[in-house]
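User: Please predict the structure of the protein below. I'd like the answer in structure-token form so I can feed it into my own downstream comparison script.

Assistant: Understood. Taking the following sequence of 160 residues as input:
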Amino acid sequence: MRSSETYLIAKQKLSDYCSYQERSKAEVLSKLQTYKNLSPAEVEQIIQELIAENFLNEKRYIAAFVHGKFSIKKWGKLKIHHVLTSKHIASQLIQQALSEIPDEVYQQTIQDLIQKKLATLKTPINAAIQKKVVNYLLQKGYEYELIRENLQAILQQEKL
């Protein structure tokens, strides 16, 4: 197969790949590596064309990723930031997208997760139970201070 044929096939496949779901530039580059006959210049040309034709848009990808992971999976900002960093996304773009999450909604999500986890654990609530709740939210990527503050507030409310 000639390189130009491979180029056209790769571009069409990558257009379809990006149309199906938002993709990062790193994901597209990884997919392009499967086409052995493409030169580095052709790979870069495909990337530039996908960007120009709006199939590939990093800001849109980041916004969709942050929204999905926070709204659906209930991930915290730390975990989202870590995963996006591992996908070679610029920290400034990540911070910008994370700042779009309203503080009230973020706090409410932490409180809801704490309540949900406490409901699955035995009472009375002791230090070991609190540690399990804190570890659960740390795994989800929430900040320790916010977890601690919200957990204490919930425990104070329950004592009243």
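That's the full token string. The CA atoms of residues 11 and 46 lie 6 Å apart.
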